[in-house]
Structure prediction request, 164 residues.
Amino acid sequence: MVLIEHLDHRDPSVAELIHGVLLLAYAQEAALLQVVHFAPLDQTADDVRASEACFFGAFKEGTLVGAVSFVPDDEPDQFLVTSLVVHPDHQREGTARVLMARVLALAGNFPTAVATAAQNAPALALYRDLGFVAYRFGTIGAESLPLVKLRRACSDATVQESRN
Prediction:
């Protein structure tokens, strides 16, 4: 069972825990995307501590196995998921879905957006399964990595926040 808790990312030890999961998940994503430089890997624990985002963590047996962060988007009246990561050893267990369910529950009837690499098939499948629809495309970085931004119009009671 996954326990979702708000994370005080300003606490240095908590920021280090979040950063550890971020590095493992983003290294895996960089390999999947076959990119030489992946900007999320440049993030430090100090960057996590300084973030204006709200963080939630997924715990299994007291160990942080995933995290999600979100902020108000630049687009009015919309939330933006800034990161969703799951430790590689705990993927395919529903952890990302449970974390997203928490964000969507908090967003209520406000739209929620997320951006990911256009080639990140596992992330795109999850977001589409949760009702997100692509609405903006672009590129980022020296390698012109194709990105897609997806939006979910409002909360849906069918998204389950907990799994057994």
